[in-house]
Design brief:
CATH topology: Rossmann fold
CATH architecture: 3-Layer(aba) Sandwich
Shape: globular
Radius of gyration: 15 Å
Number of helices: 5
CATH superfamily: Vaccinia Virus protein VP39
Structural class: alpha/beta
Strand order of the largest sheet: 5-4-3-6-7-8-9
Low-confidence stretches: 1-10
CATH class: Alpha Beta
Number of strands: 9
Largest sheet: 7 strands, mixed
Order of helices and strands: HEEHEHEHEEHEEE
């Protein structure tokens, strides 16, 4: 399927501004901060990584986040993507990050709190549950871990017209929900840590 979505200059400016406002340095452990500019994944503990900036940028462009939206960030990790998403939705929006590893929930929450964006938060994932079904629906869902197949549980948490960007079996998918119809498009090959439910 061909994706007809085009990101305009305003969207790109907003993404650039989000990266400028929330540098990766503030979301890394001290031993890794000198490598923040490295365009590759960096360890953040618990076997997890901070995705390379190029990949994060590509995912945010596909996600097409705008002011006032409600966004779910699955696999919030260090809190970097949660902070970037919060910048894009602004105070009128809401970002809910969810993370399985308790140590990373604490680490990511502390990093996020330092950005002073109180419309964003990171909470522990409930074992065996993907996302935050009790807080659905979401306008946008970003998934920073690789699934073997498209998780229906997350699709069901999208609002009508909502978008999800998720790596599935090595391929970045952009998924739009229109009532009971699901539209998918493919956007390159990527490697991520596995998506887990605990």
């Amino acid at each position: 399927m061909t994706d007809m979505h085009k990101t305009d200059e305003t969207d790109l400016d907003a993404i650039h501004a989000a990266f400028a406002a929330h540098p990766r340095t503030g979301f890394l452990r001290p031993a890794e901060r000198a490598r923040a500019g490295h365009d590759g994944p960096l360890p953040i503990g618990c076997g997890q990584t901070s995705s390379q900036p190029y990949t994060v940028d590509a995912m945010l462009r596909l996600l097409d986040v705008g002011p006032g939206m409600r966004v779910l960030d699955v696999g919030a990790g260090s809190g970097w993507t949660t902070a970037l998403l919060a910048h894009l939705v602004g105070p009128a929006g809401e970002v809910r990050g969810v993370e399985l590893e308790p140590e990373l929930v604490r680490f990511g929450s502390a990093n996020l709190a330092a950005t002073n964006q109180d419309w964003a938060s990171i909470v522990p994932a409930e074992p065996g549950v993907l996302g935050l079904p009790g807080a659905a629906p979401f306008d946008r869902i970003l998934v920073s871990a690789e699934a073997d197949e498209l998780p229906q549980a997350l699709v069901e948490q999208l609002a009508d017209g909502g978008l999800m960007v998720i790596p599935v079996a090595g391929v970045m998918l952009r998924v739009r929900r229109r009532a009971d119809k699901i539209e998918r498009s493919k956007h390159g090959y990527y490697s991520f840590v596995p998506l887990r439910q605990g």
